[in-house]
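User: I'm writing a tutorial on reading structure tokens. Could you give me a worked example: one chain, its sequence, then its tokens, then a sentence or two explaining what the tokens reveal?
Assistant: Sure. Here is the example chain.
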Amino acid sequence: MAVGAFPAFCGLYGAIKQVEPMVCAIGILALLKYLEIQNIRDRLSYYTLVIVFICGSVLLSDQILYLAISIGSILYIFYQLAMVSGVRFQGLRLLKILVPSILFSTFIFLIVPQVKVGNIFKYVGDRSGQGGFSESVSPGDFKKIVEDDRLYLFAKYKKLPRRGYWRGMTYNYTDGRTWRQRGVRPRVVTVKGSAESDFIVRKVEGRRTPLFFLESTQVVGHKNPLGIFENTYFDILPLKDNTSLYALNFIDKSDNRVSQRKPDKFSTQYPKKNISSRFTDFLEKVEGESTNDKLNSLIDNFRTLNLEYSLETEIDQGKDLSEFLFNYKRGYCIHFASSFALALRVLGIPANVVGGFYGGEINAKDKFVLVKGGNAHAWIEYWDGERWIEFDPVGSIVQASQMPRNDFARFSELEDQSDFALNSGIVGIIDDIKSIYYQLNFAFFEFDFERQLVLFERYKQRVSELKSQDYMKIVGLLILLSLLIYFIRLLTKYQRSLNYDEDFVQKLKKILSVERINHSGHLLEILVKHGVDRELANKYREAFIRQNYSSQEIPRSEYRELKKEILRSLNNSFKNHSRNH
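And here are its predicted structure tokens:
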């Protein structure tokens, strides 16, 4: 049941796409069950396997829910294996096993969290969900992100901006089909840290994706300074692949470097040989002298084409944009942004395509925003003669009813931000559960190397403070003495048990004339073969396992009597064999 339940859950939840690593662990356990792990069980402590697999689940899982199901499945399978092997558990004795397992797993987690083993499995194969945020973009890329619909950003906020466009990459060069970055000069910059931030953003998906920021905000470090790559267009990329936490602060328009930079030589570039005559004829209908007049006229002309917003389109990166405008008339954000930016360039207006996200799922009660792949979006920026203006042609060309649902769209229409409705009833409870779930997830799985160092520094400081106290020397000596006594008793008991069984095994070897007994299963076969009743042999095997590998030992007198009975049975068997011959 446990073997099948976890993969089934992954399939229903959608996680099977990332080949959840714990399926491998569950499969190994199933194999061990099939083989009844006789060799492993006899040579290695049975409980060590429980600890190893629990630690494995801690290192391999990447979500709290997966972790809980993994550990539950592991414990269930090991419990069933114990029942098959004749190991009986009582509640208190089972607790004795689980507590050290949890403590050891916690220790492993604190010592080696930076390994991030789960990510190795998580990013195996085609991670197409990140395709739209590389140095080039073309029709088809954003569709992959939208359909993947993974969680990309989790942002806690104090106040929301009017426009919910999360800017990521600026694309300044086009061949008429694909847009890419060209001529950018990335440089290493260290931004200041901020103890009080307007947004605290966690990048959940895509370690190499940009640090997305909202309009009229700037990227800062969360509490501590943050190293970043910043290019000519002020796009921000992580300096380290493991950068997952940063902050945003609102800034005045006068401080917005993104909008104040000057146009460059690429801003009006376009491939004249790749522009169709239908496209140039269409642009001849645009009227006006000023930038705003041309923009409004271009919007009106686009509206006459009766374009539809849909992910279901046949336009790909190999097709000319004229196919989208005049033949198929159906596309999504990248088609609208690419064609509109190209049209502005042909009209002599500097323009670029911008890739990122629009909006997100707002939880007004707990004040956080979930930005998923379904929010991936492309829009444009154009130069109005004084500064760069971000503009979304989709919202101006197609009807709002064709657009995907977006909380920011509803929010931007409100006069007062406080009027944004709080979810209540069951939906409100679900929002609370989501908030708790994500917070637990981040607190547990975002424990990275930097946080580990902070923890060690705190520990070191605390130990230094305690060492200065005189009473701690006495406490330390008492703890060491207690541990020494405990391990001596444990070693004595273990050695006595082994010696006790070793003497008996040597007697059996001599009586049975065998050189080697591999494990308890092998011994069982030999005893039955030499005439010992199978029920008696099984009883001894179960007692042997309990005595050596279980915390629930049988009375020593009972164990001794059972061995004598085995020896008597062998003697009787040999006597009967001698009479018959």
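What the tokens reveal: The first helix runs from residue 2 to 13. Residues 2-122 form one domain.
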